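Whiteboard transcription, Tuesday session. T.W. wrote the structure tokens on the left side:
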């Protein structure tokens, strides 16, 4: 029979809270990234730049909160920036 400690119960409770918080952060982050991609697909330069700024900020916050690793956030920021910059550089 397994021994159940107070600390084990507490850690389980904390992990559920953290899991919920992390999932909410990642969900919001995905929405912001999709917003940037949609603006790029529709070739809306101003909307894409504003959305990129918001997404970059959210990615940075996700890193500071430990939701995402720094290199992953950097890679996503770089790719989104590349898409937005290619949109603004192309003649319309």
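and on the right, the sequence the group agreed on:
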């Amino acid at each position: 029979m397994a021994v159940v400690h107070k600390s084990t119960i507490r850690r389980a409770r904390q992990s559920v809270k953290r899991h919920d918080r992390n999932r909410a952060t990642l969900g919001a982050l995905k929405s912001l990234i999709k917003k940037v991609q949609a603006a790029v697909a529709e070739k809306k330069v101003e909307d894409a730049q504003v959305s990129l700024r918001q997404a970059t900020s959210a990615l940075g916050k996700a890193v500071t909160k430990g939701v995402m690793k720094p290199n992953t956030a950097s890679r996503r920021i770089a790719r989104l920036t590349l898409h937005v910059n290619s949109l603004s550089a192309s003649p319309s």
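Someone added at the bottom: The chain has one domain: 6-89.
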